[in-house]
Amino acid sequence: MNQFEAIAEAIQTLEIFPERCAIVEELLRLDIKIRRLLVKNYSVFYRFDRDTVTVLRVLHQSSSLDGLLSEIGNKKD
User: Fold this and answer.
1) What distances in angstroms separate CA 30 from CA 7, 17, 27, one per listed residue?
2) How many Å apart are CA 2 and CA 34, to the nearest integer?
3) Element (H, E) at 74
4) Is residue 21 part of a domain?
């Protein structure tokens, strides 16, 4: 299974139990509930509202989160 397939399969598992992943602490302080699913060397950032999972971004774990956190924090609903 290649990396893309592994990530896609992991994302599909969110259908069963979307709240199993931790909320990103840095965003929780801003009252933004975005979760992080770890898949090999990647982080899948997603939001879960009622019956909908929305994948926001997939980043390699060596990437800096500063830009993502700033971008998401500025789009706070």
Assistant:
1) 28, 24, 5
2) 26
3) helix 66-74
4) yes
Domain assignment of residue 22, yes or no: yes
- Average pLDDT of the chain is 87
Strand partners, 59: 43
Query: Which residue range(s) make up the domain with 21?
Result: 3-62
Give the model's pLDDT for residue 69. 66
> pLDDT at residue 76 above 70?
no
Residue 21 has pLDDT above 90, yes or no: yes
Share of the chain above pLDDT 90, in %: 60
Assigned domain for 58 exists: yes
Q: How many CB atoms lie within 10 A of CB 13?
A: 12
Query: Of 34, 32, 72, 41, nearest to 59 (Cα)?
Result: 41
